[in-house]
Specification:
This protein is an all-alpha fold. The protein contains nine helices and no strands. The longest helix has 27 residues.
């Protein structure tokens, strides 16, 4: 009989290393996949995934079992991505005026972005709320699950998906004209 994620999470929160290892084995790829969809850059997704895995033992104490473990875990990933974006924005503001170094850093980021597939690159152009919603749904979350992770209604999830499709369609049409 397979032990549920919820039971493993509670055991891991109490210090069971085997339970924690099994949770990571089950969900590491999913965490990375969602982190990649949220960041759009492999290196950033790898860093984000590692940060989440390192912080997860302490965060498991906050898991109460009110939602499925994966729903809770996705929320952890989304929150970590939001925190990373805020830090990046702060660093970018503080880097203003650093001249050549900042120009070189942005050029390196642009080179990395060009190597991504079209959808991933296009998702980076979406507003954060649309990107987060689309990333969850593309990662096989139902609209109800995405709504729970994001703290919004399922109807808002549907609206955001519709808006994301409009943005992506417009971007594709613009690129086709060039």
């Amino acid at each position: 009989m397979t032990v549920s994620d919820e039971n493993l999470a509670h055991a891991a929160a109490e210090g069971d290393g085997d339970a924690f290892a099994l949770l990571l084995e089950r969900h590491y790829d999913g965490v990375f996949r969602l982190a990649f969809r949220l960041t759009g850059v492999r290196d950033q997704a790898e860093d984000l995934t590692q940060d989440i895995c390192a912080a997860l033992p302490a965060k498991l104490n906050s898991y109460r079992g009110a939602a499925r473990f994966t729903t809770w875990l996705w929320r952890v990933v989304v929150n970590a991505a939001h925190d990373r974006r805020r830090r990046a924005a702060t660093h970018a503001r503080h880097a203003t005026g650093w001249g050549d170094w900042e120009v070189d850093r942005r050029a390196a980021n642009d080179d990395t972005a060009e190597a991504l597939d079209w959808l991933t690159e296009a998702m980076r152009a979406l507003p954060d709320d649309l990107r987060d919603t689309l990333a969850l749904v593309l990662d096989d979350a139902t609209h109800d699950q995405a709504a729970e992770v994001l703290g919004i209604s399922p109807g808002t999830v549907s609206w955001r998906i519709s808006e994301a499709k409009k943005h992506l369609r417009a971007l594709r049409e613009k690129e086709d004209q060039i």
